[in-house]
Amino acid sequence: MNKENAVGTAEVTRPTLPQTRTVTLTVNGTEHQLQLAPWTSVLDALREYLHLTGTKKGCDHGQCGACTILLDGKRINSCLTLAVMQEGKEITTVEGLAKDGELHPVQQAFIEHDAFQCGYCTPGQICSVIGLVNEGKAKTLDDIKDLMSGNICRCGAYANIVQVAQEALERRTGL
Amino acid sequence: MRPFTFTQVQDVDSAVQEVSAEGAKFIAGGTNLLDLMKIDVMSPSHLVDITKIALNTIEETEEGGIRLGALVTNADTAYHELVETRYPLLSHAILAGATAQLRNMATNGGNLLQRTRCYYFYDTQTPCNKREPGSGCSAIEGYNRDLAILGTSEHCIATHPSDMCVALAALEATVRVKGPQGERPIPFAEFHRLPGDNPHLDSNLQPDEIITAIDLPAQGFAQHYTYLKLRDRASYAFALVSVAAALDLEGSIIKEARIALGGVAHKPWRVPEAEAFLRGKEATTENFRRVAEAYLLGAKGYGDNTFKVELAKRAIVRALEQATKMEPTS
Questions:
Q1: A78: which chain B residues are within 8 Å (Cβ-Cβ)?
Q2: Which of B36, B116, B212, B323 qualifies as a cystine partner to B42, CB 3.0-4.6 A?
């Protein structure tokens, strides 16, 4: 649509993008107010707006698990959920696991078991193991393998990752 | 992703009103919709967040069954005590699909409305009648290993990807939906549809209707059941062929049999006449073979997927044998 302004030149009115909105996210125990477009995923909000780049963008389609975070203690793919839909929830990323300078036991176990090579999938793997323990459904080695199948490791550190998960489950159940 | 406007609703009536706008879609778990929006297969201009609506419980019904709220997650449904004890077939089927992460997000209503995983539906550079009506089907003459062998049309050979829905078909669930004209129940067998001349339509749910719940009848087949899923790897893969088998046995005599197939058609595949053949018969491999033959009558392979015809027959026999022996897992 063109309209004449006071000096007679044509002014072009461009369609406007939908408004951003204020979104309050609770990440690692801290509330953050962000101005976000509705299509911003939790993953992009974490990485691009909060600069928490520990959570990785692998496939961005829910297939690789590199973006795994904990939402109210349960594992989800942060690439497949909109930030605007997660107000009021507790988001935990890999940056929120260490306490008082001490690594989370699962983080420490990844080091002790040499459960990574390049490390790109590791933040997602760590969050996934913690989620696995929180959810409390894995009883056997096969359960662990099945319930960790949403986290791909292209270096193939699976055998050691499974050891970490076994150890974490044993620690939780006191076996 | 293309820009869209966004709103949150608190109740079913507001949801129905909001979704009647041109280009509007509901979002709940988002696991399938956002994936498809990122690659421009779906491009709604308005998203209606329904996750705040109180449809997130599982309760017993007066008829002796249970009601699964549309917004309960797949994980919470599969691990719910009532589902685990009374409808273990459903529990097993849900846990055979996707990953822990996805099941923690995906909802029951959304599971029913999953789109096909046909490669050409995802590939916007190729014709696909489901994505773009009238453009043609690339799969019929193309690579079709994962695709349908039953109930196909000359316009589409897509499969419905859900595991949960295969169990819901066998259990004869009812889908409760609400639209501007009020509520209506849809028997599960009539919820999804065959592609025919309109492959862009996956189900008989109208664009301005919302799924509120899924009702399960009292009969849960909790003794003799199996969800057998055959796929290229042991976890996180769609079914080549899956079978939800449920038997009500009196000794070795079959009082009732339910068989639903996944991975072979545009909807969970049931042949009630073939199931009826088993009624009053002995639970023997020979009888299972006969019913398997009847299930695959009219099956048609397209080259890469022709192996599914024999695979499905063997899977039916194996699933029924496992159900008989109370060995639900393979």
A1: none
A2: B36
